[in-house]
Write a structure and sequence with these properties.
7 strands; five-stranded parallel sheet; two-stranded antiparallel ribbon; alpha/beta; 25 helices
């Protein structure tokens, strides 16, 4: 099994015709005077696009790390940080292997281990780097883990900045960082698009100023709303757009607006494209080849590229030699919900199993396990847990392995245990047979050494003579040698049990030697 995770986890979004928001670029430049910056805003607020375009404009080196729910486990988080460190140029590749390795024994010393790991991890970054943690809210974890991570951030050296992107405000454990000004915030009010920025997003697609103004007013500066309403209102006349100024039909909830307009766009797509999108959304990140393999649609690449170039909630990233597409989280949630409602259950389960095989070929065992669980492919998950058990244990991810096993239905878990036990039993039995055959072969080839042959010798008689010649002397000498050899033999016999055939051979030779000595 390959041991390299999906590189899209460490790749920042690749941008296409993005509006450069200079007012926010200046705010980000000023924030670099502080070690950490926390950007919080709702889904579709443009957080990732803003930071990615700023890094591109400033040509800042660094690392983009996309957190997910698996990173709420410290062992998984440290493992993937170690993998990500190898992408930090030649120095990172050389030093990544020397980072501390997690094991469950550190659970009682989580804070100390976290500080030590982050101290050595941060030291791998070149000066002037930016470390971006996207979707930080996904890896919430326990209060103890959040506190340990917040304390570990104090190891951040001068010349390195961390940017957190999240849907929610900083957790309470980071309040001390905010109070000390080690971390500053950029909130939703700053992220809203101004009228000029909205015109740059919407106006270049040919909408009139009246439509642009209506869209900006209705969206409240929410960039996801801007794009969705642009797609919707591009089909209306300028006169029709005026109704939006006083529209009471739009829901106050941004997510409801997102779902509504995405549904409208989705409904207008051709049936084969709708099916392709529903199946492609099963993967956390998807290549054109993946989408074609799941759906059988030879135009999958053209569809994904069209959505990306129209900014319709599809990011494009570089994963090694592959181009990887990633749906906006809310768009993916919508597509998954549509798939559950529209796709036949058997087809969806089969597609999930195929998707798991695709990510497993790339070495992403975590994504494969999640897909197997969603599909209810319990035997495949049990096989994955068995095959990956040594890898997970070696990475210190005992809790991840336990979670996979605990999610199995009781009957599958029992069957898996019996299979594992039988396999071990067959291996042990075969090994014992090999050892016995080897022992018999040695017995036939040559007699055993005297130290082993004396194990069954009769008790030594007390010596009655002190002369150095004659039979008595020989008996005394033979008895002493026998006693010494028997003592060594008893010690050896405790270390390795002997077979009954070997014992009989020993006894026969021992008795013959004893009779020759007496005569």
């Amino acid at each position: 099994m390959k041991n390299a995770p999906t590189l899209a986890k460490f790749s920042r979004p690749r941008l296409y015709a993005v509006v450069k928001r200079e007012r926010l670029f200046r705010a980000l430049d000023e924030a670099r005077a502080h070690p950490m910056l926390y950007i919080a805003g709702p889904p579709g607020a443009g957080k990732s696009t803003l930071v990615a375009s700023w890094l591109e404009a400033r040509r800042a080196p660094g690392l983009w790390f996309q957190a997910d729910i698996g990173d709420s486990d410290p062992a998984t988080f440290f493992h993937y940080l170690g993998v990500a460190a190898a992408t930090l140029g030649a120095r990172g590749a050389r030093k990544a292997g020397s980072l501390p390795r997690w094991n469950p024994g550190y659970a009682s010393e989580l804070a100390a281990f976290t500080r030590r790991f982050l101290r050595e991890f941060f030291a791998l970054f070149p000066a002037g780097s930016v470390f971006v943690v996207d979707n930080f809210h996904e890896a919430a974890g326990t209060p103890e883990w959040r506190q340990a991570f917040a304390d570990g951030l104090l190891e951040l050296p001068a010349g390195l900045n961390i940017v957190f992107l999240s849907r929610v405000d900083p957790p309470p454990e980071m309040s001390r960082l905010l109070a000390s000004q080690a971390m500053v915030q950029l909130g939703w009010e700053s992220l809203r698009f101004t009228a000029d920025e909205a015109a740059a997003v919407v106006g270049r697609f040919g909408e009139t100023p009246a439509i642009v103004e209506a869209i900006h007013r209705a969206s409240g500066g929410w960039v996801a709303g801007l794009v969705l309403m642009r797609e919707h209102l591009a089909r209306l006349s300028a006169a029709d757009a005026g109704a939006l100024r006083d529209s009471a039909s739009l829901d106050d909830s941004r997510e409801a607006v997102f779902t509504y307009f995405t549904g409208e766009i989705f409904a207008r797509a051709r049936p084969e494209n709708r099916r392709t999108l529903m199946l492609a959304a099963l993967l956390p990140s998807v290549t054109a080849a993946d989408a074609e393999a799941l759906s059988g649609n030879a135009d999958a690449h053209r569809l994904l590229e069209h959505l990306y170039r129209r900014h319709l909630f599809v990011d494009r990233r570089r994963g090694g030699e592959r181009t990887v597409y990633q749906f906006h989280s809310l768009f993916r949630e919508f597509l998954l919900a549509e798939g559950r409602a529209r796709l036949p259950a058997d087809e969806r389960r089969a597609a999930l199993a195929r998707a798991a095989e695709l990510v497993l070929d790339r070495g992403d065992i975590d994504a494969a396990a999640a897909l197997y669980r969603t599909a209810g492919a319990w035997r495949e998950l049990a096989a994955l847990a068995r095959d990956a058990s040594m890898q997970l244990i070696g990475e210190g991810r005992h809790d991840t392995l336990r979670e996979w096993i605990d999610s199995l239905p009781p009957d599958v878990r029992r069957a898996s245990r019996r299979s594992s036990t039988c396999s071990v039993s067959r291996t042990s039995t075969a090994s014992l047979r090999v050892r016995r055959r080897s022992s018999r072969a040695r017995t036939k080839r040559s007699p055993l050494p005297a130290t082993r042959a004396t194990r069954c010798s009769p008790p030594r008689r007390r010596s009655t003579a002190t002369t150095t010649s004659g039979p008595t002397s020989r008996r005394s000498t033979a008895g002493s040698a026998c006693s010494s050899a028997a003592s060594r033999s008893r010690t050896s016999s405790r270390r390795r049990p002997r077979s009954s055939a070997c014992a009989r051979a020993c006894c026969s030779r021992c008795c013959s030697a004893s009779r020759r000595t007496r005569t």
